[in-house]
Amino acid sequence: MDVISVIRTKRDRGELSDEQIDWVIDAYTRGAVADEQMSALAMAILLNGMNRREIARWTAAMIASGERMDFSSLARPTADKHSTGGVGDKITLPLAPLVAACGAAVPQLSGRGLGHTGGTLDKLESIPGWRALLSNEEMLHVLDTTGAVICAAGDGLAPADKKLYALRDVTGTVEAIPLIASSIMSKKIAEGTGSLVLDVKCGTGAFMKNIEDARELAATMVGLGTDSGVRTVALLTDMSTPLGLTAGNALEVRESVEVLAGGGPADVVELTLALAREMLDAAGLKDADPARALADGSAMDVWRRMIAAQGGDPDAALPVAREQHVVTAPSSGVLTRLDAYDVGIAAWRLGAGRARKEDPVQAGAGVELHAKPGDTVTAGQPLLTLHTDTPDKFDYALKSLTSAYDIAAAGTDFTPNPIVLD
Ligand code: URA
After folding, report:
1. Under the GO molecular function aspect, what terms does this record hold (predicted)?
2. Best of 116, 173, 183 to mutate for ligand 1, by most ligand atoms within 8 A of CB?
């Protein structure tokens, strides 16, 4: 087998054979196929697509590139959730302990933010002492003793994807449905969860900007999971405006703790409960009542145990950025748009995100929202507060917000998008 014939097959709109796929993934993982060759193949796939058989084989080959985890020793059914990424998407933080409080085991292998989207591990690392890197044994121990664990995927899990994702990120080949679906599902299937709920984001702040693409991505991933014996369902959810009232690491932890304490923004609570019900249903725990577990403090108890088991202090004060800048409403009326992408870029420029994988993030940086689409605002009232340790970043962040919102005349009839689209 040679890599040039594999690239030519896809370049010329052909179907890759099972043998070609197995060979190219294995050879790339071993370093026998060069980055420039794999990026040519990734671009050919982005332009010409893959059929269902090719996507399934590509996913299987990425799983086979590494180890598979095994949770069969646990007494509880396992349930996992994966979000395709967005702005202010802190849902994993309240959701994992909530679903654990209802009787499932929640192994949540999470990632870091890149570009305008936030990452669960960066958020949790703003809690003093908390550790994202656990050995497989530590992960299983936290899961077994607390019911939930949120940590980084080990190097042994789908190493082909680790390499390929980093390559796609710098070659303009992220936004390909076959590559996104196989990337996400290879990690989830290798992780060994019994059931999986996918939160497929749609809107300006998501990879999928329109509902048709989001639906195709969701259907592809559900097919891959189901064919591998993982009970998989997907919700299509809105990402045209940030989730909740914060985008940034410590800011989002604070908001998540508010949700676990029985408060928090309505959209975060609604989506957390919707995903919890799907996870419990998929795990065979239909009778559990997640709303009660939020109200009676049992989800908060699991959160505190889970954070402490990973070295964190759930009572420690969260970092606060050194400087704030308030953006006020330029006119009175109804806020009809507050753009997720623009707010995500602002949070990123303030220091909440990183431009390169190795960059540090600021725990306290980010954007706080004082109004959401549908709210009535008055000229001069605070609309957003920007937080950063590096105030020279304010001007750069403000540039991304110049056309981030629309305010219509008072009395305008406006209904915001529902949070769960389908
Ligand atoms: N998340 C992943 O893990 N992979 C992708 O390709 C896109 C989002």
Report:
1. thymidine phosphorylase activity
2. 183
